[in-house]
Structure prediction request, 508 residues.
Amino acid sequence: MDLKSIDKIELEYLKFDDYMEIKDVMVSAYSSMPDSYWKEEQIKNLLEKFPEGQVVIKVNGHIAGTALSIIVNYKDFDDNHTYRDITADYTFNSHDYEGDTLYGIDVFIKPEFRGLRLGRRLYDYRKELCENRNLRGIAFGGRIPNYYKHADSLSPKEYLEKVKLKEIHDPVLNFQISNDFHPTRILKGYLEGDADSGEYAVLLEWDNIYYTKPTKKATTQKKVVRLGLIQWQMRPYKDIESLLQQAEYFIDAVSGYRSDFAVFPEFFNAPLMAKYNHLSGAQAIRELAKYTDEIVEKFSSYSISYNINIIAGSLPEIKNGELLNVGYLCKRDGTVERYEKIHINPDEAKVWGMQGGNEIKTFNTDCGKIGVLICNDIEFPEISRLLAEEDMEILFVPFLTDTQNGYSRVRHCAQARAIENECYVAITGSVGNLPKVHNMDIQFAQSVVFTPCDFAFPTSGVKAEATPNTEMILIADVDLDLLRELHQHGSVRNLKDRRKDLYTLSKN
Prediction:
């Protein structure tokens, strides 16, 4: 059809009064399969059972194409089901409003309207319907109408592979694959009378990345997560009570903005070492480690009373005689989990005798799956990639840097991790100085929330950033659904397109 002759294209629900017109469309669409059209009673049954699943697309007021579908419990059907099975002998009694999968019964376009990409509009409607009804995905048996040309030399599986490699053109399969449907298996004897396909079909599926499995428990799993980063001022504190008072002040502040996380920097409790400045650095930090249990206990109580998850920066801790740099995730449900700094920097090892940790793991929260890496751990891309492979969505990086050089290493590596792992990365550090604490003289920081770089995110990859070297809080919202969409449909897909046939990464 000539594009210049088109005045209006409309997508509408199918009405029973449309029957004679869609019959004509179907007869012309399936000219190679005589008498392959739905009877009036079948269309009536379909409309009674699932009216919103049946749509037509009109060009200048005339029906140009139709899409028919039902909802099924996919697990109820055998992997090698037939068209007759899925439609309950063409009665559509298999339709179940409580099912989990939208099953495509039919899509057909009148020959004169082909080439206008009207089929894509029908499939886009199905995808929106699937998302709106929170269904697991879409499935259907796709015909392979050109298979008869190659049946003597190729099995259906071999034919499918050559179509995927663009060595053979199949109008149906090529269209489905270009619309994000992936072939999962060959169905034998699927559609009776489909001689062109040898009665074979390819089971094609589309996964709803927004699907949430129904649960009988009350749940508060969030899609938009609010982060509260605390850019902490290093200042003298006379005792631990004074330090905790300041920490509670900030937790109260970010909680007042209904933040889901309060994030503290690495070694934010370092001012308490001033009391031990007469000792060597190694002895002083071991004295500081004696406060860790009390701080964690207090932070856990704050997480409950202020209804917020707290990333407790990092604290020195002695475990089995070794000095470690560790942090704690204090969840608002009262549970507490622990993370360790893996890569100790040369100064920590030389001055304090600190050892690297051994635990690399993600954490489940009511705001998705998160990871925490301490300071220069972010400069080792392998760790964050391991966390990404466990479906991490937000990576927190508490850090402590004294110079702009050190800060730049943390900042630029953190931004790279956000891009390559398709996740959010939030970094927060300390500012100010501690003239009475050895090895902790000065600090430089600018807290930032980084995003991937694609159309749904800021072009700079920076969601929000604090004022450099100023005590403050930074509040930023991050949308987890945007990550799920990026993983499947991004301009580039850094996680999905990795060449795992050439290289792999694993924990020891």
Notes: The chain has 13 helices and 22 strands. The radius of gyration is 30 Å.
